[in-house]
Amino acid sequence: MLEEEASRGKMDENPEEKPNLEDNPENPETDQVLTDKEEEAPALEAEQEKTEAQEEGEELVDKEAQEEENQFQALEEELRSVKAALEQKTQEAQEWFRRLQRLQADFDNYRRRSRKELQDMAEYASEKLILRLLPVLDNFERAIASAPEDQLAASYVDGVNMIYRQLVEVLQQEGVASIEAVGQPFDPEKHEAVMQIETSEYEDNTVVEELRKGYTLKGKILRPAMVKVAKKPLNS
């Protein structure tokens, strides 16, 4: 017993003399440790490779995201530029459209005026000639009114009346019509007042006498009637 304890004491005092499990290949515990390390090494390498792959993947994703962001910003800038150009072209197109509308309206007005002028020219082509014939018509009326009443002049008056009626008929066929005057309210467009007469027989501002006939041509005033107009007496 004493020898065994002494032997153990010597072994404890000299650690270098302790048995090394790793140096003993025949030790089963050593084999188990080596086996565990060999099995853990590929897993560690795989984990490290996985980590590196994840980091590379994240860097690649960040890089792609940055590129997409840059592309998106470039597209936004291009879109703003295109939108501004489109708005400018739209404004120009609207301005040209408004000009076209004004030109179209001006042309339509010009066409209507031209058509009206041509129509007036066709309708009133004989206006100047008729105006020159009206004094002749007046003279016929005066001649008939002042003709003597004796039998000798009767045939002469009948001939003048026939010529007068023919002339009136021709003028009527051209659209000439006489303006009503006596008994009508005074109308400055149809009547030319040359005198006022105080009278209670007619209402104020009424035509009481026609000094010269007025005429229209297809509704247009050729010559206003020359008239006397009633005026209320001051003491009435």
UniProtKB/TrEMBL annotation:
Q: Where is the composition biased (Acidic residues)?
A: 54-70
Basic and acidic residues bias locations: 1-21
Superkingdom of origin: Bacteria
Q: Residues of the signal sequence?
A: none
Family named by the database record: Belongs to the GrpE family.
Assembly notes: Homodimer.
Q: Where is the stretch described as Disordered?
A: 1-72
Q: List the lineage, top down.
A: Bacteria, Bacillati, Bacillota, Clostridia, Neomoorellales
GO MF terms held by the record: adenyl-nucleotide exchange factor activity; protein homodimerization activity; protein-folding chaperone binding; unfolded protein binding
Q: Is the keyword Chaperone assigned to this protein?
A: yes
| Xref: Gene3D superfamilies | 3.90.20.20, Head domain of nucleotide exchange factor GrpE
Spell out the protein name for this chain: Protein GrpE
**Gene name linked to the record:** grpE
* Gene Ontology cellular component terms for the protein in this record: cytoplasm
PANTHER family, from UniProt? GRPE PROTEIN (PTHR21237), GRPE PROTEIN HOMOLOG, MITOCHONDRIAL (PTHR21237:SF23)
> Could you tell me where this protein is found in the cell?
Cytoplasm
Role of this protein:
Participates actively in the response to hyperosmotic and heat shock by preventing the aggregation of stress-denatured proteins, in association with DnaK and GrpE. It is the nucleotide exchange factor for DnaK and may function as a thermosensor. Unfolded proteins bind initially to DnaJ; upon interaction with the DnaJ-bound protein, DnaK hydrolyzes its bound ATP, resulting in the formation of a stable complex. GrpE releases ADP from DnaK; ATP binding to DnaK triggers the release of the substrate protein, thus completing the reaction cycle.
